Fold this protein.
Amino acid sequence: MDWNKIMHTALLGTDRAALPEEQDPAALGEAFRLVAEQGLDKEDGFLQMASIAMNWRKCGELPPNEQVYFPLAGEEESPYCSEAARQVLDNMLVIENEPLLQLWLSLCAASHQLLPPERLPSLFDFSQRHKRIQPLLMACAGKRGAWLLKLNGAWKVDEEREDGTVWDTGSLQQRALYLQKLRKKDPAHARKLLQDVWAQENAATRATLLQQLSGTVSEEDLPWLEGLMTEKSQKAREETLRLLRQVPGSSLVQQYWNIVKEAVQISKTKGLLGIGSKTEIRVQLPDGIDEALFKTGIEKMSSQKGVSDADHILYQLISAVPPQFFETKYGFNRDEIIGLFKKVKQGDRYLAALGNGAVAFGDAAWLKAIAAERGHEFYVEALSVFDGKEAEKYAHGFLEKGAQPDLVVRSVAEYLKEEWSKELTLKIFTHTANQIYSYNRSFYSHQVLQFPASIIPELEKCAPANPYAREAWSSTSEYITQLVNLKVQTQKVFTTHT
Amino acid sequence: MNLSEEQILQLAPDEASRKAGLGLAGAAKWVSRGVNDRALWGECQGSGSKPYQTQVDLSTTSFKCSCPSRKFPCKHGLGLLLLYARQSSQFKDHEMPPWVAEWIQKREKGEQKATAPDKKVDEAAQQKRGENREKKVGAGIEELLRWIKDIVRGGFMQLPDKQPAFWEGMAKRMVDAQAGGLATLVKQLGETNFFADGWQTGCIEQLLSIYLIAHAYKNREGLSAALQQDVRALIGFTQNQENLKEATGITDTWLVLGKQVVQEEQLTVERYWLYGTQTAKSALVLQFLVRAQGAVLSLTPGMFIEAELVYYPSAVPLRALIKKHASARPVSLQGMMPAWRELRKQEVETKALFPFLQARPCVVEQLTPVWHKERWWLLDKNNELMEIAAPFAPIWKLAAISGGKPLDTALVGRDNQYEPIGVWENGQYKSL
């Protein structure tokens, strides 16, 4: 029986469509005849014939035989990771921790091993929400991963490609990453690449690519960068100015310095009868400031009560020049210059500005001197200027005093990317354990790579006195222990198996 | 214990338990740890002053914990098993403390008690209750058949316009008639997606199945005893499990091919698909949980158990209960289907005995998942294709394991649609 005829009758109803023919097909003729002989009403007759036909159809149905072209994944050349590594990975996937996954993937890639194929889909899914893991993921995905990506267009994964074609054909994110890496290895080549394509890129792309030069600009970049100060695109212009501010020899920094050195007058005057001498400092913004200055990111008006516009402008300008310039220009050492600034009205503000300058130009010696003088203020970015131990000491000192602890903790989290000492971690946890609403699991989850394994037996020491916070800390401690254990296990499985 | 960490995590009742279990898989959390051939135990320091006492009967992978959690197994049970899987050397005590010995003893006594004969029942009262129920079911079925005929008279084209009350009303009527199985089938019919392409075929087949069952019940006198039991089970009559347990079952080393969990309002139905490694028989074991309580089985896909299974009476036995079981070592399987054609042949033989819709598990050699004509299929060695029932969430996991190469595959399905539930890779079973 043609199933379509059954369907036709079923859809229209037995009131409007005829019952299927008995003799069609011959194989069911006998069965249908038996149904017909029962003298059933139309509906029962139809239902019984259709039931027979349904089962007959299913029993006769053979699977389609077709030539199917389906590509094979390539044979892997590198080995898969060990079973122990896979197990650690599984545990990470349960808690979905990005830093730990990044660590796992980086160690796997470094040991030239591959992810187990069955974990690739979960990781590709995860990488859609956590794009930062994509380059590392692709480094461990092998040929199976590339094969899967071709099959599933929903996974958009940016691979970190080492070959030069990524610069011509990659996504903006891939190109930016490529430029950033190249810039560190070969700054002139990176600049040349950017110069070559500059004319054909749109404003947003220009700004993004310029961003990748941050922290690596030098005098050699100046001729080209200074030519970009007249860029039509505001985004690209702002990015150019930001880069130029990082080079002491740039015309922008020199422009600022010219005003500052005119504003800061230091002179030696002889004492009475020509015996001894006295050093005097006068700080005053010169008149007739060129309005063009305010198009370079310097604010014209002060929004702070008690701070004049002139002081505000000067504060910004001193913040934007290397403090070293003062030593060279006036022939005094750091301590002497600090001592002089302390004498003037608004002196503390100028010292703060000198500290900003030290941060901006990475002058650790100046920053240390200013920090010693202005012990009440924590320089957030100081941690990026000081070396590891010095930075820890600086942060530890503020935590010890209990001054601006949240600011310190956030800065430590942002700038100290290496593993923290047990002492600093203890100080941080002692603070965060008390602030259960400010520091939830997300905080610990993001910083796990910085926690030393030696902190685990010490966690109890950080428990707050408040019973509610104490209870919460007990649960947080379990979580921290779990994260740190996974970190340790990751390091172990790749050390053991490489 | 032969469970991998992955299998242990699959025992978890939910995602939160998995995460919490992992958090307790460190030795520092456990103030005491012990193991011997029969049990695994440990005391976990929780937030209270007294540690929780957690114990696992290793012969059946059964759990007990003194924590107040309603989940089964609780996070402590999972954490303890995970810790043992990772660091068995940390379990240095081998003599069961009294609280473990007592529990194990009770379990052994319980097993003996379970095999002891029950007290006599009032057969006359039971028979009367049975007759009353049959009357109710009979009356309900008459009404159901009239309802079906009304649909057929008016045509299926009118069905998309029906209000939910049309389906709910008949489903409730079946519940009143004590025909819960039919109520579920009617409810499923009402859940047809009338916006999907080809809804007509599925809808008609479902209605015909209901009609067949209802009619088979009406004419049950003419059916074989086994098929009568099948029809009664489909209608919603339950089987006395104590009686079943008295029967001799089939002993084999069974592989747990898969576990499916279905939430039905406050009831959780766990379906375990089992495959006899020596007998090549398949089985479906059901476990019902009310608000996550009442679990007696803790099986996980990929687990091998040495068990005696008693099948519910049927023309083609599938549903079974586990009379007794113990963990077993992995063994190789016998009797895989060589290709789709052989499976279809077996299906035809099954359908001749049991003409109702029912998904069954099977194991087919060397199938390759392929993307063809905008759908996923399983291609056998004869280039014959079987469609993978959509939606199938783990398709990418399957594809990733395969890499375009064939794999021995465990499936659940019927007719022309199957869902893979596990594959063998390098001789190891991996659930999907």
